[in-house]
Hints:
Blueprint (H helix, E strand, L loop, with lengths): L8 E8 L5 H9 L3 E5 L6 E9 L2 E7 L11 H13 L3 E7 L3 H13 L4 E6 L1 H6 L2 E3 L1 H8 L3 E3 L8 H14 L12 H17 L8 H9 L3 H6 L7 H18 L3 H20 E3 L3 H6 L1
Parallel strand pairs: 1-4, 1-5, 5-6, 6-8
Antiparallel strand pairs: 2-3, 3-4, 7-9
Helix pairs in contact: 3-11, 5-11, 7-8, 7-10
The site of guanosine-5'-diphosphate (GDP) has 16 residues, from helix 1 and helix 4.
Amino acid sequence: MGSALMEKSFTVALAGNPNSGKTTIFNNLTGVRQKVGNYPGVTVEKKEGICKFRGHVLHVVDLPGTYSLTAYSLEEVIARNFVVDEKPDVVVDIVDASNLERNLYLALQFLELGAPLVIALNMYDVAKSRGMDIDVKRLSELLKVPIVPTVGNKRQGMDKLLEAIVDMARYKEKFNGKRISYGRELDEEIARISQVISEKASIPEKYPLHWLSLKLLENDNQIKRLLGVDGINREITDALDASIHHLKKIYGDDPEELIIDGRYGYINGVYRETVRITSTKDRLTIS
Ligand SMILES: Nc1nc2c(ncn2[C@@H]2O[C@H](COP(=O)(O)OP(=O)(O)O)[C@@H](O)[C@H]2O)c(=O)[nH]1
Ligand SMILES: [Mg+2]
């Protein structure tokens, strides 16, 4: 029994944009130890598997492929609810390095949700062949998240990825996620709404307050219902209306648009600071 104390069992959720290599990496990690079912109440497929690594048992769950974490699609709701409700020890976001900007949009949202994140920078070979020179260390510093380059179909980077996963699982209490600034005006409204939520609603601890406010400003129906917005909770409804009105007056846009722009603006800055495009084989062969 003594050695059992050393062995830990962790839950690891694999997330990522469609076609980023999620299934490939899931198969690399779990091999034949897989089980296929559905998420409760819906027909979205749920694959689970087991991976043993250095005395640890990792229960790996394949989340639906998504580009975002809104309430507009079932897949996105499943992915984010799994992270909020099941609190996996680690969320691994499989990022297609050759489409870095678009893929970081999802990664940023997991960070805003407070998920203990590890990024697998997959398709690293494709990115390289397109002349992308990615400063992985700097990218990791800016996003404050461990990043491991991988080439899924060649099984490259799997051990390093597993090491990063186990490290995150063991030290996730120290992981802080990431908050970006949406500019003074929007940040102030987020803070104002957070204050009202904390005073006027009893919210399960699993939801980060800041994330709830962002979601209200994004007009997220699931979170609006959760918080009794649209009448049931008068104070929160009024606070949200006032914020939306105020922001629309200043910017002329819905806060939802401002938040999307804010995320892309932040990611664009990170991208410019970490990616250099050198001469590419592709370009030479096309001309
Ligand atoms: N070149 C390259 N191809 C990859 C890599 N990872 C996965 N693939 C391929 O990309 C395609 C999509 O991968 P898949 O795992 O099905 O993506 P999913 O939609 O995220 O599950 C498959 O043909 C994989 O073999 C990689 O790192 N480099
Ligand atoms: Mg797949």
